[in-house]
Amino acid sequence: MTKAKRPIRIVHLGLGAFYRAHACTYLQKLEGWGVLGVSLRSAAVRDRMRQRGYRYTAAALTPDGMDLQQIDVVQDMLVAPEDPAAVINALAEPAVSLVTLTVTEKGYCHDPATGTLNTNHPVVKSDIAHALPQTAPGFLARGLQARRAAGLPPFTVLSCDNLPANGAVTRRVTLDLANHVDPDLAAWIAAEVTFPSAMVDRIVPATTAEDIARIARLSGNMDAAPVVHEPFTQWVITDDFVGDLPDLATAGAQIVPDIAPFERMKLRMLNGAHSALAYLGSLAGFATVADAVADETVAAYLQVLWHEEIIPTLKVPPDTSLEDYAAALMSRFANPGIQHRLSQIAMDGSQKLPQRLLGTIEDRLAHGGRIDALLLALAGWIAYTANQSDDADPMAAKLRGCHASDPRQTVHNILSLSAIFKDPLSAQITAPLSDVYTDLTKKSARAMLATVAH
C-alpha cells in the first residue's frame, strides 16, 4: 500500500540541506504535517529532489559508518524566481499555519550591526515597489497581506537560522518592509503574527559525490538529493505560537519560556568555535573540523577559547553544564565520520561575526576579561578575507578593498565598516587587534595558536 501523502501545512522558505537534515527529521515523527519547500534562488534542489518524488535519504554519520533514514515530509517544491505569485498563493492557503525559514544571515536583508532592514539594497527596494517579491521578508509580508485580504488568520513565522533572537530579527525586517508597503498591514502583523525564536543545532556538512555513491550502495536507491549529518540534534523554541501547530515537543524539540541562554550558549560555544576553526584552521593548512581538532595545538586553543573566554560570558541554561557541553562539542568536532569543510563554515563571515564573536568580546571587555583567543580568531578572519575571501559574502569586495600594505591600516579600515563593527567596540579593540594581526602577518597561524594555547 502506498503511504498517504501528508497534507501541506508548512511552507518553508530556503529549502536546503540544513532544514532537511534537522527540522524534517523531527516532522518525520509526526503525522499530518507536510512541507512545501520554496527555493528563493535556483531550481537545482527542486530538480534533484523531484527525481524521487521529494522523498530523500538522511544519513547520520557515526564513527562506525552511516545510519540511513528515509524522509517523506517534503511534498512539493516551488522555485520563487520562476513563479513568485505561486509562492504568495501557497502562503495564503488556509491549511498553512506555519512558515519556517533557513535563508542564512544575509537572507534577512538586514544590517547585522542594528538588525534593521537594509532599505538601500536594490532587491529590498524592488520588494517595496512591486507586488511580486524576491526576498524572504518580501514573501512574508506579501503572503500575510494576501491572508489578511482573504480574511484568513495569520501563520506563525519560525526562523531556523543561526541568528541571535532570530524571531525578533525576522519580525523586525518583516514589519519594516510591510510598513513601507502598507502601514495598516504592518499594524496587523504586529498585533496578530507571532515570531518565536529558535535555537537549532546539528552539524550538516555539504553532501559530496562520494556520500551520494555510498548512500546508493547502502540503500539500493539512487538518491540525487540526500543529506548527511551528525547524530546529535537539538531544537529549542520559544513558547510563542498562534493557531494550529505540530506537536514539536512530542517529536523531541524543547519548548521553553526563555530561549536566550540556550541560544547564546550555542552561538558562542559551537558557532563561535566553528568560525575560529574555519579561519585559523584554514590558515594553518587544515581542510576539515575533524582534521583541525586532531592537532594538539588547535585542541588546546579551543579549550582556552571555551573555558577562559566564552563560558564566563554565559548564563547557564536550565539543567545544563557548560563544561559538559564543551566536552561534548569537542567529541562532536572530532567525529571522523563528519567531513565538515572549514571553507563551508567560513562563508559569509561578515554576516556571522557579530553574533558569533563580537558579542563575546564586548562582554569580556565590559568585565575586564582576557580576549586573546577571541582576538586571534578575529585576526584570522581578517587574514582569510585577504587570501581566501569568499566571493559569496555580500561584503567581499569591500573587505578586499580594506587590505593595505600596512597591517595596522588594514585593521583600521576593517573596523571602520559600520555594517559589522559598532562603537565603542571598534575603538576598544583597535590597538590590541592591530598587534595580533600584525603578528599573524609575520608568523604562522599554528605558531600564533600555540602562543594563545600555552
TrEMBL record:
Q: Which InterPro entries match?
A: 6-PGluconate_DH-like_C_sf, 6PGD_dom2, Mannitol_DH, Mannitol_DH/Oxidoreductase, Mannitol_DH_C, Mannitol_DH_CS, Mannitol_DH_N, NAD(P)-bd_dom_sf
PROSITE patterns from the UniProt entry: MANNITOL_DHGENASE
| Residue stretches making up the Mannitol dehydrogenase N-terminal domain | 9-248
A Gene Ontology molecular function term for this protein is: oxidoreductase activity, acting on the CH-OH group of donors, NAD or NADP as acceptor
Q: Which residues form the Mannitol dehydrogenase C-terminal domain?
A: 258-423
GO BP term (any one):
mannitol metabolic process
Alphabetically sorted, this entry's keywords are: NAD, Oxidoreductase
One Pfam annotation, family name? Mannitol_dh_C
State which residue ranges cross the membrane: none
Q: Name it.
A: Fructuronate reductase
The organism named in the record is Yoonia maricola
